[in-house]
Amino acid sequence: MAPGTVLDLRSDTVTKPTPAMRRAMAEAEVGDDVIDGDPTTRRLEDAVAERLGKERALFFPSGTMANQAAIWVHTKPGTEILLDAESHILHWEMAAAAALCGVQIRPVRGTTPVMQAHDLRAMLRPQSTYAADASLICLENTHNGAGGMVTPLPALRALQEVGRAARLPVHLDGARLWNAAVATGTSLQELAACADTVMVSFSKGLGAPVGACLAGPAEVIAEATRVRKRFGGGMRQSGILAAGARHGLTHHFDRLAEDHEAATLLGQMVHGAGGAQVVPPDTNIVMIDLPAPLANEVVARAAELGLRITAWHDRRVRAVTHLDAPITAIAEFGPRLSQVLADVLR
Asked: Can you give the pTM of this predicted structure?
């Protein structure tokens, strides 16, 4: 890379639209999506529904809004939802489930880094006049907090069976479901079939500037349309945004394997430096565990050398590979991060 170049690995959301994506957005056919529908947005929604094997899909400004719309339509105030204790919905959505939907979260702390069926089953309460009724199970694949870890299809199906036995709907936060499919070779339809509703994001690995979709049964998505409006997510000429998302889905899906390869390389290059231990990445997220609470120091020193990463907590830093961080850049910057770890942790 050119001298003075900064490599930003804080997230796969930092990507810039490619020239081809910008052209697609500039040339998008548009309409008023709130009044009578935007044709480009409809084409995106149809494509997502087909890929996921669902009846309908609905375009949202963000994955968080789509997740919260799903919680709204599946639950009622005064009930509780069960999900992984390290899930995005619990930690990174501003307590929206409580503030907007009136439900409490019952976190499931698993025996492995990602919630398993036996963990979930053990947390289901017997019905009682003294405890909130469960109304929804939320899954996450890939799991952000666990370092982009994939929940494989058999484990997903087992979790779904727990929901069926308890007569509870299942929602899947699939912000990076694309990565899970590419990493495992499992079809999107098979993965999505393990949940009643599925959220997928376009602004991460697919490189779009904004957007997500919620997919599921037609009647659920019809209600989600009303909820989206209530949340302030009714958009007008949304086809400009949807065109970017559709371009990413069409042209950037298969190349996700390159991000996974780059993450594996980065992990190999820095593992052991200064005593740091890398969580072997399933996909494009590299979690680096430190032997001392020096994450902020590592981040600051890396920034001085042109590498932007994040402190996950005081003993863990995170780096995420993506469309704008090719493996050649990882090969160049990996030694810098290794040196930073050795210097800070010595």
From this structure: 0.96
With beta carbons less than 8 A apart as the criterion, state whether 67 and 272 touch.
no
pLDDT for 211 beyond 90: yes
Structural contact between residues 227 and 74, judged by C-beta atoms closer than 8 angstroms: no
Ordered domains of the chain (ranges, CATH): 19-251 (3.40.640.10), 255-345 (3.90.1150.10)
Half-sphere CA count of 221, side-chain side, radius 13 A: 20
d(CA 137, CA 128): 19
How far CA 200 is from CA of 30, 35, 118, 249, 327, in Å, comes to 22, 25, 26, 11, 25
State yes or no: pLDDT of 3 exceeds 70: no
Q: Using only C-alpha atoms, what is the Rg of the chain? A: 20
